[in-house]
Specification:
Blueprint lengths: L1 H37 L5 H12 L6 H16 L4 E3 L1 H12 L1 E4 L2 E6 L2 E7 L4 H5 L6 E5 L2 E2 L7 H8 L6 E7 L7 E6 L1 E4 L3 E6 L4 E6 L6 H14 L4 E5 L8 H11 L5 E7 L2 E7 L11 E5 L6 H11 L4 E4 L7 E9 L2 E11 L14 H5 L1 H8 L15 E3 L5 E3 L8 E2 L9 H8 L2 H12 L1 H5 L4 H7 L4 H13 L6 H24 L4 H5 L4 H8 L1
Parallel strand pairs: 11-12, 12-15, 15-16, 16-21
Antiparallel strand pairs: 1-18, 2-9, 3-4, 4-5, 5-6, 5-7, 7-8, 10-11, 13-14, 13-18, 17-18, 19-20
Helix pairs in contact: 7-8, 8-9, 12-17, 13-17
């Protein structure tokens, strides 16, 4: 009885499924036959894309699909290999070339308006008469004020080939009508040395932002300038320096090391081990040096720090570096696209691998610094535990550790001080930064009369009324604190405000001399 009732049901299902399966098998066999006969030389990827392009139910943008596929594959390999579409690659390369073609201004978008922070000295905008504080309202016929424009779009409008012209309409405080300017674009140099000056009569300070094509040349010029001013020892600041060109890092390390010293070596599955040694007599071989690093120091910065540490040359101060020790080579894919592919790993002279562990989770890898807060590492070196198998010894007998990043010789943790709570909150909320920007913008002429940042620092008075303005902004953002915390905040805000204003009025290099008294890591350097 059961057989009599169930057979028709299963038969119907089987027939229906067989019809469906038969259609699929028929199509697959036809396509497979074509690929066997005519596409025998195709690899798996080509075959799949052929099938999609010629058989998929809907129209497919094959170029877009291929880019998505390549990006997905690269993302899963390691956190630093990357595919770049043409417009992105051009921008990325430009950032490391040491120059670009444009109008020569630094700007920020303030209240939905492009505000000129400064003009490049001798650049096309300065020559045309553009001033710091000017607002760009139109570029050509395009209104860019009040339309929620972003930095990328502004850059595309202002950059362009050397010799081409761009018309802009400018709003300037105190002038009723918009001002018309025609700017001829030119080659605009970019710089990697943020600042180079004497901290005292004998100690020089150089802060390096990144390693670009002109970095070694800039560094040499900075050293020569400081040596003329009496520099006997150097503090070299690589905090927040995310790296760049290996060749520039090698050339800078060479300035500190004797000829024949090993700087770094690389090795990969398809790359033989390659040793890089110091090749010449360096300018700073006999100069005591301290290098500052932190969790933002990566790649080329770590190569320099690791080379000096492993050669017992100088002192590394700060916090453990990022841990980016993978070598990328750039390959041209045609049509302006490119691939930066990891081909090897960096190793310090003692054999330490700079690269920190990676488990395939890119976001976790990038945000690993947050884990250092959770573990307590950022606040105490005692929270860092090294494995004995990763212990290395320098020629001078100093113990150093591998496992990712460069561990400094002297660790400077972040401060945990409850009295600084209110100050940290108003700084993190950009209240001090914004107030300094607005004050600079509305008092530019009188501030310029101070002449330079040193004179401004000595003579400018930060008033109670100014502090009350900051307190009002804090209240609007519901930031509260005790009287003690506010007193501490006021004392620290005065110096930070001055540093921000100095940068807005006198240029980026004016910031550091005024910020110096607040820099705990720099204070530690000056003790040693």
């Amino acid at each position: 009885m059961k057989r009599r009732y169930l057979t028709p049901v299963w038969l119907a299902v089987a027939v229906a499924f067989g019809v469906l399966l038969g259609i699929i098998i028929s199509r697959s066999n036809n396509a497979a036959g074509y690929l066997i006969n005519k596409g025998g030389d195709m690899n798996l990827t080509d075959k799949v894309f052929y099938l999609i392009e010629n058989n998929y139910v809907d129209t497919v943008n094959m170029s877009k699909l291929q880019v998505e596929a390549v990006t997905s594959v690269i993302d899963k390999m390691d956190p630093h290999s990357e595919y770049f579409e043409p417009e992105v690659l051009e921008e990325v390369n430009e950032d490391l070339q040491g120059s670009f073609e444009g109008i020569g201004v630094t700007f920020r978008i303030e209240k939905d308006t492009v505000t000129i922070i400064s003009t490049i000295k001798g650049g096309p905008s300065e020559k045309t008469g553009i001033l710091a504080g000017d607002r760009i309202v139109y570029v050509g016929d395009s209104l860019i004020a009040g339309v929620k424009i972003n930095n990328s779009k502004v850059m595309k409008l202002l950059k362009g080939p050397r010799g081409t012209k761009v018309d802009v309409k400018i709003f300037r405080r105190g002038v009723a009508d918009l001002l018309d300017f025609t700017i001829t674009r030119d080659v605009i140099p970019t710089y990697s040395v943020d600042v180079a000056y004497m901290l005292n009569e004998t100690t020089g300070y150089i802060k390096l932002e990144k390693f670009i094509a002109t970095t070694h040349k800039e560094f040499v010029n900075a050293v020569k300038k400081l040596q003329k001013q009496g520099m006997q020892k150097l503090i070299f600041d690589l905090r927040g320096n995310a790296g760049g060109y290996l060749s520039e890092a090698v050339d800078i390390a060479d300035e500190f090391l004797t000829r024949g010293s090993l700087i770094v070596y690389t090795q990969g599955e398809h790359r033989d081990r390659q040793y890089i040694f110091a090749r010449r007599h360096g300018m700073l071989e006999d100069t005591p040096v301290t290098i500052l690093i932190d969790e933002g120091s990566a790649s080329a910065s770590e190569i320099v720090a690791g080379a000096l540490q492993d050669n017992d040359r100088g002192t590394i101060i700060g916090r453990r570096s990022f841990g980016k020790g993978l070598v990328q080579e750039q390959f041209d894919l045609g049509d302006g696209a490119g691939l930066r592919l990891t081909v090897a790993r960096y190793y310090t002279p003692t054999g330490r691998c700079i690269q920190k562990p990676y488990d395939g989770d890119r976001e976790k890898y990038i945000l690993e610094a947050y884990d250092r807060y959770d573990s307590g590492e950022m606040f105490s070196a005692d929270s860092i535990h090294f494995v004995d198998s990763l212990k290395y010894v320098t020629p001078g007998g100093k113990t150093v550790y591998g496992g990712g990043g460069i561990m400094p010789d002297i660790y400077v943790p972040l401060r945990q001080d409850s009295t600084e709570y209110f100050f940290n909150k108003i700084v993190n909320a950009s209240i001090v930064f914004q107030y300094a920007f607005d004050y600079s913008d509305t008092h530019r002429d009188e501030l310029m009369k101070y002449g330079d940042e040193r004179n401004f620092d000595k003579k400018f008075k930060f008033t109670d009324a100014m502090w009350n303005e900051i307190l009002k902004e804090a209240k609007k953002k519901k930031i509260t604190g005790t009287d003690e915390q506010k007193a501490v905040a006021k004392a620290k805000t005065v110096q930070l405000f001055k540093a921000y204003v100095a940068r807005n009025i006198f240029g980026d290099e004016a910031f550091y001399p005024l910020y110096e008294p607040m820099d705990e890591m720099l204070k530690e350097c000056l003790k040693n």
